[in-house]
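Q: Fold this one first, please.
A: Sequence and structure below.
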Amino acid sequence: MKRHHAAAELPLSAPAGDGGGLRLVEEEDKQGKFDKAQRRCSRLCFLLVLAATVSMLARHCYDSGLAGGVVRVEGVPKSRKIVPIARGELSISHRSPSAPEAGDERVLAGNGEKELSKTSASVSSGAGDKSSGSSIGVSESDNGDRTVSEDSPPAPHGDQHSGHAFARALAAVDGRGRDLCGGRYIYVQELPPRFNADMVRSCGTLSPWTDMCGYTANGGFGPQLRSGDEGEFQETGWYDTDQHALDVILHDRIRRYECLTDDPSLAAAVFVPFYAGLDVARHLWGYNVSTRDALALELADLLTARPEWRAMGGRDHFFVAGRTTWDFRRLADGDAEWGSKLFGLPAIRNMTALVVEASPWHLNDAAIPYPTAFHPACDEDLFVWQDRMRGRHRPYLFSFAGAPRPGDAESIFGHLAEQCTASPACSLVECSKGSSNKSESPTSVMKLFQSSTFCLLPRGSTSTTRSTFDAVLAGCIPVFFHPGTAYVQYTWHLPKNHTEYSVYIPEADVRKNASVEERLRRIPPDAVERMRNTVVGLIPTVTYSDASSRLETTVSDAFDVAVAAVIDKVAKLRSDIVEGRAEDEKLEMYSWKYPLLGEGQKAEDSHEWDALFAFN
């Protein structure tokens, strides 16, 4: 029988006996090696699974954007310098526009030739258009005199903000003590240049009647005006500004806004730099509806595909359409119908549209002042002008710029012109066609309004008129004949109590030959003085200042008021979502009335102006 002389040679099946202990040691040693290998494998598998999970999560966050409340955050320095962006060029970049270098070329007025800044030569592909799209946005700049932390803390675990796409924006509001821009950040949506800059470059095609190249210069302010012979203007700050130039003016101001961000998750609101007013104006005459709607439809598709849109379905987005709302509310698709259907598109209805005249029956219109000729570069220019208007000698009781409109049965222009002509207390500038029309001259209008205590401001072809703000600028007390001219329009910029700054005489009274002069003479002198002081005090909030000088200002202008109102609107929506409150269900037919309601009042309650805004 074969004998096994070494323990190592004992077969594993050998019965227990003298070699059992050695066999047990050998088995335990093998089992230990197996356990160690298994643990190493487990750790390796865990790491691989973890890496895969993180990778999938990152990809999901990138693809879904803000929809799930988690966003991709680019690495940013702990602080960045936020400075106003200089006026004059349309910087084109995949981010936001940086402050231009010294020597950048400006858009030139005069012969209509335009030279974009040297920095705008760099063009990158914009969202949704890889072939020609570049975007107008904002890039970080290392120079400037204001440092604002962009390192806003994320919402704490379990915080009521967490789980929402705008959690970081809300956390920035809570951390405003550490971040001067907390709750004020604006994100500029990337758009290809055909939505904005290309229109300015092709300024000669913007109007069949007027060469708009000069009016789009100087950031939309137009050609600079010289001081009038009788001191109607100051030496600086006055421009021949077109009343429909707000698309360019506000975009230029946004680009200089001190709290721009490249991170949409921090944004209090999203600005869409689409020149809707310029786009529709160039297609109003001689173009079919397909052409008029083309860019609007493309914009809706582009925006709704963006992750920034999915955060709130576009309700935190806003844009400027520097014309009346009626140019964008075409109801039918016949080529003979007026305007585009931009405002009727479902996506656009979620956004806030800033227009010079809003619809009384739609909630997302917001009227902001027409641009006037005055664009002060600093507080001192503004204060000097206000002092001049307070002390201005006004030889006429009232004034009127207009002429009878025989073809318009609803117009009261004829009645007012007749009364003004018959009274030595009234100064009249009659409108006429062609270059001799003094009512279109900034010098003539300012001279007229500065010479009178009251300015008559009836409705024109639409309810509103730029003359409202020319009158305020001249320190002239407005006399309105319909609440749709101002009272239900500019609720962000004008006092809720209209008797503080204006006089209201119903159109119906004028048609019955009520004497306007008699009504005005009934107003006590001390009340007139109070109203004039209020009007002069409104000048800053109805002017668009010149931010290109980089001078410090302490007074909010029309732009500041509008942006703050948009941010407040978005903040309230977000607060309602976080708190679980149902969104206010407002009826669009009463949209004109909501800003006028007092404590405890309801839109359904009767109002003296119900008949004037009856919804058909």
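Q: Good. Now the second chain.
A: Here it is, same layout.
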Amino acid sequence: MIPALYKSGILSLALAILADTAQAAPYIHRRAALTTTTRPLRPSPGNRTHYSTGQPRLGSSTADPTFLTTASGPVTILTPHERATAVHATQLKEANAAWGASQNLSITWKQFPEGSDYAADYVNQVLQACRTGQSSFDVVWVESAYVGALSECLEDVWAWDEAAAGGHAEVVARGGVVAERLVALPAELSFGILLYNSDLLERYGYGYPPDTLNEFEEMATAVLMGERMLENYKMAGWTGPLSSSEDLTSTVAEWIQSIGSSIIDDNGSVTVGTTQVANLLARLTRWLESGIIDPSDVGQSTLTSSLNRFLAGQALFARTTTAHVPGIISSASSAGFDWGIAPVPSDLESGLGVGTAEGWLVGTYRHSQNKAGAMKVVEYLTSQEYQKAKILDLGAAMVGTYPSFLLDRSICQAYGTVRSTSLCMVYSQVSVNRRPVSQAGARYANVTAAVQATVLEVMTGATAIVPALKALDARLRVIMGQPAVELSLEIDDSIVVRPGKKSLDQLGTQLAGLCVVLAVTAVVVVGLRRTQRREIEKQLMAGNPGQNPPQGQAGPSSPGTGDGQPEMREAGSSSSKQDKGKGAEYEALIDKSEKIEI
């Protein structure tokens, strides 16, 4: 075994050479043109009064298209506790009230109590009020994963203003569309992003983070190989949320989008059951086998714990979201290494990275007593002017939903930089995708649960890839009310099943092969032992040519001596010392021949 100090010396020399040849700049590639243009989202081919089928749009007959100039009166915003108690909440509340006063509107916040949970308390209260027709509030904050769940309790914005979503990034605005109804407008955006340990990358000859999945795998493999030589067995190539949660669904959506696929497409069709997705899952199992993903993280790590692991220097890459960037910047000073932010790598032809859209939207409550006033407040809270003012105040804590912000110098300055790299540049190189929230509507809870369960089953080895993917496709089709299809997936799931294990249907062949190997090994070992014993026996014979004949046979007599005994006695007396020396040598050889081991 090579001593650790010696291995360290060899590796240090190799790293010095790599570091000397590493690209010193840039820290991130400019992989594509800035993604700052967007196609306005419209209810096309429908309009404000009708759906695309020609049927009248629900609520359009009572909607007032002049609400932006005629709305007035009180408007109550139902506010989750975490938003009402945030650092800048007081300033935002005062700004809302001041703007409302200028528009003949009286805006108040109805705050949820301390200890309340958004999903368990806020969402359930809205649903209960909606079922009973209660009208104690007008505007609803909608976390992006709950758009489908709350869609039936929200007014259709397009029934009031068919241009309401114009200017927002289309893919983000589409996250508020359920069954051809724009039920909420995007107010705050967050999406997946990659953290990387720049010290480690540069140490192993890489001057920039990975652009593609192959580059990601290459870098992680090289770094892990070197760290293993230094006996750093705590290091993982990547860490992220791998426990059953919505963060896992976002991560999976990014992985699938990175190869140009989707779980459910924009038309609502289930599209997850493909060879491309099967091969992606196979790649994930390979990452588990090689240590790029730590198997102990599967089913356990959260967004918070994975971030802590990265900041402790125990992962080369980590998946987080833009919403966590300010906290990372403030806490990373104690990390003890340089780090950076980059888009999540992908194999998209555009060269862009990927990121799953998260964040908040705002909608008008269906039973509001002042729908015109509520709709005006909703458009104000999601407007360019209001979002820009929040960004200039909050900085990187909030990403706007308007792509044009990435060309605004003051906004880019507010976002700031990480390791001399503008966050505006990083964000502009991300192709934002969506989870199938709006496509699934109220059924999304079942969709995300099925996706999470399948991925964890594959990663833990509970189910083989192809059967698991076929079962997921079938399950999603049942949830979405679509007919079953026969899938043909071209992947050998009997080989890539789980980390370090093979499938049972190949167990007999594998055992037979192992027996053959053992048998051949045994034959070779026995043959070598016999050969060595023969060689030793030859040495014995060659070293004692005057040995006695076998018992029962007479040896030849010397002339004139009769039975030859006097000569033998003389010979014995003269050579007794020599015979004793050779006897010891022969006994040693014989003993050696008895102890031959291979």
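Q: Anything worth noting on the second one?
A: The two ends are 20 Å apart (CA to CA).
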